[in-house]
Each structure stands twice: as C-alpha cells, then as structure tokens.
Amino acid sequence: MFMKRYLFFVAVLFCTLLADAYDMSAPALRDSVVIDSVTGDKRTYKLTDSKTLKPFYWVYNYLANSNKLRSDKIYDGGFVFGPAYNINTGFAIGGGYSALYTFDKTDPTLRKSTINSFFQVSVKGIVAVGVEGHNYLKGDRRRFNYEFSFTHYPSAFWGIGYDTSMKNYDASVAWDRNPLNRGVPNEYRVDSKQLLLKFEGDFTWRLADNLFFGPKVDFLYSNLYTNSNPALMSKLLELPDGSGYQPFTQVATGLGFTFTYDSRDFATNAYSGHYFSFQQLGYIPGLNKYGFFTTDLKYQTYAPLWKKCILAFQAHGRFNYGNEVIPWIRLSSTGNQGMGRGYFFGQFRDNNVIETQLELRQRLIWRFGVVAWVGAINIFHDFKHIYMNQTLPTYGFGVRWEFKPRVNVRVDWGFTKTGNSIVFNIGEAF
Predict the structure, then answer these.
(1) Where are the beta strands (DSSP E) in 87-157?
(2) Alpha-carbon 392 to chain mean position
(3) Closest residue by Cα to residue 167 from 348, 375, 327, 339
(4) Given its phi and psi angles, is residue 244 left (phi above 0), alpha (psi -120 to 50 degrees) or beta?
C-alpha cells in the first residue's frame, strides 16, 4: 500500500511538472542551446518537424530550457510540486517557487541571489508556508539572509532528553500495537496541534575577502493549542524546582550577531569551497519569559571527486546556556536546518546538539542526479552527560532534478533509529 501511494505521488509530481512547463513567454526557438551548469558543456536540442509531436513543443521547450544559464535575464523563477511522507504527519503534497536574480546586471562575477518559497499540506493536517532568501548586494559588499515560515503542525511529544524521549517512544509504539488500546489516548505520547510563526534574518558587511559580520534576529512564536494528554505534557515540562511547568504557548526573541567565512561558489548548491558561521544570540529577560544564551557553530566543505560528483560534509553544534530553564520551543532538536533527515522536527530535544553528515552527490544523465548520505546526531543536556550510545544515526538516498541553474528539486528518503520519511524540497539540504 505504501509503495502504491508513493508511486501515485511521484506520478502527480511528473504530471505537475509537465503542467507547470507551459510558459507563454518562452522564446519560440527552433534549436535550443543549453549550458550544463555542472560541466559547462554546451548541448543543442533540435525540434522535430512531426505534426504529431509539435503540439508538445512547450513541454519540451520548458524542460530543455528551465535551467538554461542566461545572462540577459535579471530575474528567472518558476513553480514546482511534489510528494512527501513522514511517519508522524503522513502523506503530503508540497510545492514551491524558486528564483535567481541579481542586484547588478553589469557585474557577471556577482553571485546570483536566490529566493525559495514552499508550501506543504498533509493528510494529517499539516499546513506550512514559508520563504527564504540569500541576497548579495552590489559588489558583494553587503549580504542579507532571511527565513520566514508559518506552520500548523500536528505533532507528537515524548519529552525532553534522550532517555525520556526514547523510553516514552518505545512505550507509545507498544501501546499503539495493542488492539485493546484502540481508540484510547496514548499514555506515553502527547499528540498535539501547534501553530508556529518563525522569522530569522541577518544583515552583514564584508570585512575582508569571504569574511562577513553583522547583526542577527531570531523570533519564534509557538501556540500548542490542543493536546491529547495535558497531564503528561505538564509533567514533561515540569520546572526543575518543582514550582510548576513551562507554559504550552511561548514566544522567544533572540538578538545577536553572526560572523561568517564563505568561499562557496554557490550558496544553495556548492560544488567547491568552505563555509563557516559563528552565531551568538541573547534571549533577553523582559522580551522573553526565560532569559538565556545560544551559541551556534556550523562548518561545511565541498570537493569535486570526479566528473559530475561532489562530496559534501557538514558539522553543526548548537548550545543553550545561562539559565536552568531553557524554553522547550527553543531547545536544540532533531529535524532542523536540513540535518537529521528522517527524524521529524522536535522528535528529540535537549539543551545542546552536535550533529554531522557526509553526502555524495552524483550527476547522472541530462539534469537528473542521485545522492546518498550518512549522518549522526547527539542531543544532550550538558557536556557531563554526553554519551556515544545515545547517538542517533541517519542515512538515506535521494533523487535530484535541476529545476533552475544550480537549484535542484530534491526528494530524499531518510532512515533513522525510529522510522523513515520521504521529504520533498527545493535546494540541497546543505
């Protein structure tokens, strides 16, 4: 049944791509010369004179040219749709809009700015919309990045910390498998519905070649407006001094700075270069119910192995400190920033996380490619309680289709310690 449904959604993706291919503004060229964005090779596609095939010209023209590198266009965008599956949210249809543009048409060396927006609707009620962008201003002297999203998120919560989450997860699975418990709320899991409103942005100035520094803001509003087990949720969010529990609805606003080194050739799909970021945020008392600090470190590197093959590596650490109570909505967790594919957002939470992943990206024929990755995540309370046997593995494979120059549509199938999921998105995971 799973594979039948998945094949159905793949068929929907293919048909939607064909429907989206119609573009009245597409130039009616008889021959199409396309520059491969990986190798730089030029290829010429010739149209047929067949009257039978001619009506399908617009499909062919779009598929052959949507990733064409064109220096005469300041802005180039388009839509795409596809399937997704998560063990918690079920089957979903996702879509998005992706575009490339430049702030200085006269400067061919200026990196292309990107905007990627998305939406997702699942059979279990998830509704998500969002947009993110990476912008390079004239002369690449200034940059600004942003991410905005609104999500209605049916989710599950097993607690804070590896031991609590894993113990309750195993117990909740056993509960669901017992036919005597059919229709009875799970005693080990909180099924909830949550509204999330998120904004994250930074504006940086160039200090030297590839070095940038500037302010950053991080805002998150979370409203857990319904859950299946308020008593269990209160217990899982109990304050350390026993005086009560964290509120289900919270707001967290962080202010700070970001320092980056970025020698990548393209931000959202690099073939070479290095990226390092250091972010320091303070969640000030008064603006927040609980004041605390967050340090976020990230390193990424990309290297070509052979023709059309890239090896990509990422390491990331996020550390919360400064208060015995860290808001549960701002704990480090699985399912963030394209890491831990296969785990869903918030499946495991605690103060700190160290995670890494290694991915092999192989371009195949035309604009199709495949990837395979392995990764590991360790979520822990403090450095006195970090254990190798609590490391969460993740691995999987995916398919890529180049939608715009250097912007891929990706479908990833991730496998984890607790299940698997299929994710549809625009742009590489890192």
Answers:
(1) 90-101, 113-122, 127-136, 142-157
(2) 18
(3) 348
(4) left
CATH 1.20.272.10 fits 2-21+66-426, yes or no: no
**CA 402, CA 390: separation in Å to the nearest integer?**
37
pLDDT of 20 reads 39
3-state secondary structure of 38: coil
| Whole-prediction pTM | 0.81
Range 137-155 burial, b when 16+ CB lie within 10 A, else e: beebebbebbbbbebbbbb
Domain range annotation of the chain: 2-21+66-426
pLDDT tens by residue, 80-90: 776 666 665 66
Percent of the chain's residues with pLDDT above 70: 80
Q: What distance in Å separates the CA atoms of residue 41 and residue 33, rounded to the nearest whole number? A: 10
Asked which of 63-72, 309-318, 385-394 is least confident by mean pLDDT, the reply is 63-72
Q: For 374-390, what is each residue's pLDDT tens digit? A: 999 999 999 998 999 99
55, 190, 402 from 252: Cα distances, Å: 55, 22, 37
Q: Which residues pair with 216 in a beta bridge?
A: 202, 256
Alpha-carbon distance 363 to 23, whole Å?
27
Which residues fall within 8 angstroms of residue 290, CB to CB, at 6 or more apart? 283, 323, 325, 326, 327
The Cα angle at residue 33 between residues 105 and 370, in degrees rounded to 5? 90
